């Protein structure tokens, strides 16, 4: 009896699942699902627009890093100069120069943070533009193939090849949106 009581919830859940799973989709008023899959890892890796974004963002990040390196060298030199002046200046004058140095440093740090934020926002906006175009193209391909559902391949554990429309979507995306205009 104890074993039966432990197995009862599993039996009930199995019965309910089997009952619900056997309800035909048409009985719910929906057509059968005709699915297409877009593998986003393929699109992101191969699409010309995504490659353009990566190249441009890498270049901009290198310029930013070079500016940060230059600022760090300047601040290191200024901090060393300030330390040498400590014995030559009155405590008040030293404190004032130290405060000026800290204010300048904080201002430059904020400027770098602003530039990094703008870089991320630029990349996000460009990616969003690609996503919009990608959705449009996937919709057109779906209509042409008689599909009524397109999902990303990142969530699919198994599918036969005929469901994958990634290459067709990629080809059209490259033709229609080879680059994304990135603001300076």
Structure notes:
By secondary structure, this protein is mainly alpha-helical. It has helices spanning 2-21, 40-46, 48-85, 91-145, 166-176; strands spanning 35-38, 149-152. The protein has one domain (2-176). The protein has five helices and two strands. The chain has a two-stranded parallel ribbon. Helix 4 packs across helix 5. Residues 1-23 have low confidence and may be disordered.
How is this fold's topology laid out?
Layout: H1 2-21, E1 35-38, H2 40-46, H3 48-85, H4 91-145, E2 149-152, H5 166-176
Parallel strand pairs: 1-2
Helix pairs in contact: 2-5, 3-4, 4-5
Summarize this, please?
This protein is mostly helical and 184 residues long. The chain has helices at 2-21, 40-46, 48-85, 91-145, 166-176; strands at 35-38, 149-152. It has a two-stranded parallel ribbon.
List keywords for this structure.
about 180 residues; mainly alpha; two-stranded parallel sheet; 5 helices; 2 strands; disordered N terminus
Give the total of domains: 1
Distance between the termini: 74 Å
Q: Strands of the biggest beta sheet: in what spatial order?
A: 1-2
Mean pLDDT: 84
Helix content: over 70%
- Binned strand content: under 5%
Q: SS-based structural class? A: mainly alpha
- Helix and strand element order: HEHHHEH
- Kindly provide the radius of gyration, computed on alpha-carbon positions and rounded to a whole number of angstroms: 30 Å
Count every beta strand, where a strand is a DSSP E run of 2 or more residues.
2
Overall, the morphology is: rod-shaped
Number of H- or I-type helical stretches? 5
């Amino acid at each position: 009896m104890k074993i039966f009581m432990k197995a009862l919830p599993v039996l009930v859940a199995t019965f309910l699942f089997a009952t619900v799973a056997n309800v035909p989709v048409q009985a719910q008023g929906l057509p059968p699902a005709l699915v297409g899959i877009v593998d986003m890892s393929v699109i992101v890796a191969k699409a010309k627009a995504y490659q353009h974004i990566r190249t441009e963002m890498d270049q901009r990040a290198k310029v930013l890093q070079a500016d940060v390196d230059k600022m760090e060298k300047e601040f290191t030199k200024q901090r060393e100069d300030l330390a040498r002046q400590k014995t030559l200046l009155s405590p008040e004058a030293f404190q004032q120069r130290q405060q000026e140095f800290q204010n300048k440093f904080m201002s430059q740090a904020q400027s770098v943070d602003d530039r990094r934020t703008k870089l991320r926002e630029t990349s996000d906006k460009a990616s969003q533009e690609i996503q919009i175009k990608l959705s449009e193209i996937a919709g057109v391909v779906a209509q042409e193939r008689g599909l009524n559902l397109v999902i990303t391949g990142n969530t699919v554990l198994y599918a036969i090849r005929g469901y994958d429309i990634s290459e067709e979507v990629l080809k059209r995306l490259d033709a229609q949106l080879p680059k994304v205009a990135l603001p300076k």
